[in-house]
Each structure stands twice: as C-alpha cells, then as structure tokens.
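Protein 1 of 2
SEQ + STRUCT:
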Amino acid sequence: MPCSSGPELGRDAEMDRRRGRGSPPRGPCPVTRSQSLVDRISALPDDVLHRILAGVGCVRSAARTSILSRRWRGLWTGLETVTIRDLAPDAIHAALARLARPAVAALDIHVSVPRQGLQAADVDSLLAAAAGLSPVKLAVAIPARSFDVDGDDDVSLSLARLDATESLGLEVRGVFFVSPPGLVFPKLETLSLSACAMDLAAMIPRCPKLRVLRVTKQPSSVTKIEVHSASLEEFVVSTLAQSAIDIAAPALKKLTLACNMGTDGSLSVVTPMVEEISIKCWYFSMYVDLFSELWRVVFLGIRTVEGGGDAPALVLPRAHVMSLQIIMSTRFSERRFAEEMEKIPVPVVSVLELKIGSRGHVFGPLVLYLLQIYPAVQKLDIILLESRPKVEDSCFSCFRRRCLCERSNRDWRDETVSLISLTDVEIKGLRGGYHEVDFLRLIFRGAPLLQRVAVKLCAAIIPDDDWYNTVLDTFEEYPGVNCTVYL
C-alpha cells in the first residue's frame, strides 16, 4: 500500500485528532508558580509558619489562612505574639479561648465598642482572660468612653494578677484601676497609662523593677500624681487637668513633663541624676518678686539640646534651655517664681529664651534679675511680644527714660553685672525706647566674651534718627563683637 504524503497525511492527522487518536497520554496537571510556593511554605516547621502569621498583623487575618489547606487549619492558635484589632468583646473572648499556648509573649487588644456600649463587667472579664495567658507584654485599648454610668464618674476596676508581665499598657477611657491589697507585680518594668487613672502612690511600691512610666491624657478627676520610685529611670507625664505633681526618683535619667499648673497646681521634682529633661508648665499667674511685682510668668519650659543644634554658640556637648513667657499684669497671684524654681531640678541653664509682653514698660531690670539667677547663660534670646504700641496699655514715659514700673530701681542702668558666660544675644521687637539702648550698653559692659549681638525692631515702629544713631554708636564702641540691626 503506498504511503500517504502531502495533503493526504494532513487529512489523516486531522481525522485522527477528531477521533481522539494521536493525542498525548493524559498525565498530571501543570503546577503553577503560586501553587508550588504554597506547597513549599506549608512544608516549613510550625515555628517558622507562626512567625509568618505574626507578620500578618491582626489575628483575624491570620485565622483566614485556614482556608488554604489542612496544614494551615487552626495554625494561628499557636501564635506567640497575638494582635487583636477592632473586635467586639465576645469575639475577643472566643479568639483568646482558642489559643493553644498556655502563655504568650505579647498580647495587643484593641476593642471595638458595640452599639449598646460596654459594662464594667465586660472589661473586667476581658482583662482577666488576657491575664490568664500570662503575657510578657500586654496592651489593652478601648479608646472611646463607652461605659453606661451616670455623670462623668470613672468606673473602678481591679487589676488582675500579672506575675509574668514585664510591660503593661492600658488605654481605657473612664476607668480608675485599683491594685488589690497584697498584689505585687514582680517583673513589671514598663507601665503606660493613657486616658485612664490609677493610684500611683499605691501602685509603684508594688513594682520593684519598674524602669519606665508613662502617664498621658489624665482624666480631669485626677488631682494628684505622686511618683516615688528608687528604680525608675524614665518618666513621661502629660495632663491638662490642674494637678499636684510630686516626683522623687533618685535614679531617673529622663524626664518629660507637660502639665497645667493653673492657680492651685503644684510641682515638686527631686531627680538628682536626671540627664535629659523636657518640662512644659502653664500657669495662670506666677509673679516675679521684683520691686514692682507686676511681672507674671505664664509659661515655663526646660529642655535638653545637643550642642551645635539649637544653640550653635554653645561649647558644651549637651546644654539646657529655659523658656519663659512673661507678661506685665495685675493678676492676683500667691505663687512666687523663685519659690517654684526651688522645687524643680533646673540644671545649668545655657540658653535663656524669653517672650516678654511688656506693654512698652522697661524690661531691663527683669532680664538682669533672671541673668543673675542663671549666671551660666551663654545665649540670650528675647522676643518682645507687642506688634505695635497701644495708647491704653503702653508706658510712654519709658521713651522719656522714666517709667513708673522702675521707680524703686532707677539705678539699674548703672549696675555692674557679671555675665562672664554670655556670648550671643538676640532681641526681636524693639520699639525705639532709650531704655532698650541702656540695656544693650549694660550687656556689652558685663559680658567680656560677647561675640554676637543682633537686634530687630517691631514691624510697626519707625525709630527716630537719634535712637538709631545711638545704637550704632554703641555698637562701634565694641568692634570685636559682630553687631547687626534689622529694621
């Protein structure tokens, strides 16, 4: 039989294909790249897979991996680091009950408040369930006030036993946590409280290893914060409520404090070893006990800076900056600036920043008083807050070298003040008064190491030629100082 060739062979092949003959033998389906990758991951040990699941974030997302295969089913229950986000308390209880480990390294719970709100018992049972897992690190957050209580009273809840916990963070608005008698936290090193309250005077003695304490967004019901600890090394406190703050921590190295002293608040700080400090205090009124008693301190700030940063003229590698806002006022005040400073661990002040609302009054005696209190000041920065003189509250007699506010100390212009550390002076907002020139002359006389003086007039002021020439003549008397006038 002759062999088929050409078109005939093509027709035979097409017929065979239609009859099912000539097709390749049926075998395993091709494996895609993603399927191969899943299989390889599934072959990894449980500990490695748990690390992968921990990187997913929320335990709800980790639980969804159960649909991948039998290998992944329930694998999330063995997580060592558990993060729960935006679940209702019932769902959180169910998730915690399914965890296979008797103890976890970290447990972070963020509660989603149901529409009907929460009861105190809900939070109490949730904290108890979390404590039952003996977490080394525990954080619980219920950001909104959601308790069904009358008025603005806080709900009291007892802390659970946390023998293994080294770090505890609580953000549960409207709750006052109570530590039961005899309960000790032997391993607790870090305690963070936000928007909730606790009797720290009773709590801290039960934490023998406490090193870091953070207290922020304190409720208005908190009127006293007492922290006495021999082990504490870092303390952060921030509160808008008027409070009495008492800190005694001999080992403290870092202090960050922002508070409202109001009219009756108080501050006492004993931290002899502190290295890094940041204090911001707002006062209703605190008078500087000069002859006039009209100067009122309304803001006090102290912060640590590195040399070469905020203070380029500083020699020290680390320096401390004091910021004061002072106004001329007749507000009644029983709080004295000198007495308050004795209660605060003010280190050597290298930079003095002053914002002065003088209302046109002579400010020279005030600044000299402060420079005598802090003789190590190297940089003096003054901002006069007025933008323009006003008839109703300016002291125009200051422009004629006479001012009622300096009547008891008229000789200040001729004083000899030792400013041996001062190297840099900057004054903004001058108004063309001759008492300002007298103050500059006094600075030049008392600061032998002075390197730079820069002055800038208030934008609304056009000085007379005599005042401007007097300033220039004063600058020319000290050619070794870099002097600048900005009009």
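Protein 2 of 2
SEQ + STRUCT:
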Amino acid sequence: MNEHRERRLRTRWRQAARTAVAAAASVGIAVLAIGFTAGAAQATASPADRGTSNVSLAAAPVSRVAAGDLHTCAIRTDGTLWCWGNNFYGQLGDGTNTNRTGPVRIGDATTWARIDAGSSNTCAVRTDGTLWCWGGNSNGQLGDGTTTRRNSPVRVGDATTWASVSTGANHTCAIRTNGTLWCWGLNRHAQLGVGTSPYVSTTPVQVGTATTWASVTTGYAHTCATRTDRTLWCWGSSSDGQLGLGIREYRGTPTQVGTATWNGVTAGYVHTCAVRTDGTLWCWGENGYGQVGGGTGFQTTPLQVGTATSWARVEASIDSSCATRTDGSLWCWGNNGSGQLGDGTTTHRSTPTRVGTGTTWADSFAVSYHACAARTDGSLWCWGDNSFGQLGDGTTTNRPTPTQVALPG
C-alpha cells in the first residue's frame, strides 16, 4: 500500500477540482434553472446574517441537507427531495446533466428520509428502508453492480432495512437497521474495511460481523464509524494521521480509536473530527488549512479543539470543518478560500470562528467548498463557492456569509 502514491493522486484530484472551480468563476458561467419556477431569493436577515439581501420570500422547511463538492441536495419536511448545482455526472438526479442554480425536485416521491452527497454522486434512504444512489460511478460507488453513471436515482439491491448512508470521493458505506455495516466502491486503500481485496466492489460488502454499528462517515480514502457502545473505529488510509491511531499507514479493517466514548464522527478528505459524550470536540489528520482546529502540522491522534464542553455535532469535508454547540451557535474553521466558513472573509481559520451571532442553527448542516445549514424554523442557508449555482440562490456569485435558499412550494 503506497501512501506516497496516494498523496500524489490526492494532490492531482484537488488541483483538478480547484481548476474546474476557478475556470467556472473566470468565465462567469450562468445556467438556467429549468423547473425552478419560484426563483431563488435571499431572505431578510438580521445583522447576525450579514451579507444577505433584504428580499423576503417564504421558503418550504428543510429537514436534511447534504453538500457535495459542487452540488447540494435537501429533503423538505414533506419528504420531497431537491437538488441544485453542478450536474456533469448526473449527481442532481433529475434525469439530465444540466447544471441548476436553483432547487429542482427529484422525482415525485414524498418518502425521502436521509441524504448524503459525495464528490460527484449522491445517495439517499427512503422511509421504507430502501437505498438509492445516482451520479458518478467510475469506481462502483453507486452500489448497483455497474460502473455506469446514473442521472436519476437507482436502487441499491433489494434490501428494505437501510438506516443511514455516507458517500465520499470514491466509496460509500451504509448501516442497516440490524446494526450491520456495508461498504462498496474503491478499495485502493482498504477503505471498505474488508482488507485490501477486492480492489473495487460495485455492490455492498459486509464489514465484519458486528451488529452494533450506529453511525458511519466516509472520507477521501478512509472511513470511521461509531458503535452503539459509543466506541470509535477507523480504517483505510492514514497518510496524514486521519485514522487517529498514531500512525501514517493504512489499516485494512476497523481499528478502535482510543478508549473514549463518542457521540458522533465525521470524515473530511484527509482529516477527521468527532464529539465525545462529555461535549468536547476532537480532530486529527491533515492540518494544512487549520482544519484540525489547533496544533501545527498533521495530527496522528485526536487533538482537543479548545476547551468548550458544549459541542453538539460536527461536520467535515474537503479541508474545512463546522460544528454546532448546544446553544444553537454555529462555528467553522479550516479552508476559507471560497468563503465557506461564513465569516464574511476568505481568510483561513485554524480555530473555530463563529458564523454570525445566530443561536437557532439546527443539527442538519454540511460543508465542502461551500456550506449549507438549516435553522430550527426549517429555513435553509448556504454560503461559499457558487460557481455552479450550488448555493441555490439563482446566481453563480460566491457568498461569504449565509444566504437563504427558497425551495419552491
């Protein structure tokens, strides 16, 4: 397992992604949001949400949101699914490859329950326990037994017991209601948790025999998960210490991270963050943009972020991290090149920086080169990179502070 090769591959991937973003911005790409009849608008905001316009428009409430590299999807409280942004690989799922600057409804189902977005693909669980994926599929990450792109949702097998799903750059993992864990896609760095073989799996493979898995998260080439006893386990690449095991080499099967108890975990591309049951926040792995929230250089073991004991939930992706506290405040840190930290600047932050002064942020939020978050009133707000309309405001203008997204209906 060649970790130096991985770093070269990762560097090329990031350069390609950033080139695409830069190219889109430089030519001022504008796309017609076909089907977005209501028109995205920016709602009236308090000083806590500086940077939004003073146009007011009622928006349908949102229960879940997911952010891919250049696209966004959200589930409304009525169970409908909406996506927008880049659609080159069909990751919006609307049956086309047309980019959208505003939300478009995906199919006519009203039973969507959970959603996650990878680099160029999307997966979601319905209330009947079925799992559906769409978008890029070059490494079988859609789990449908092929490597064919899909521009509309395709069902993953025939199981009706899926509970949650996480999809990363090239692999996907999901937990069933019986507590079993399943992964599929690229296994170059053993990120599927079944050793180094197969190299690619286009259908779900079970990770061990445990029936106590509670949550799972996928990064660029690593995976972490918690069990019902609140222990934390990671596997795959640890080129920059992202497994938290004090090593910089891979692990082919789940390996426990320390002995602490955890409430949840999230994987960035090459870093990881998690909240402990005592409300403290810990991060580790690559730290080039300060995404670990402290220390200098990569961290191979969990590093506590500040001293607060009121952290509620954390999300990470690419080189940025965001977390909420129990008081409803939202904090972000790491890469801020596109304004994805929401603090009104494009300055990278190595410690948590508060997003406005609001105290009504809910537990559904996501961060990538852009970020989106729901509030307790069900309103959805996005900020950061908008080169493909992934902020859903009807434009391709970057926003360094939260801007409300109005879903039609």
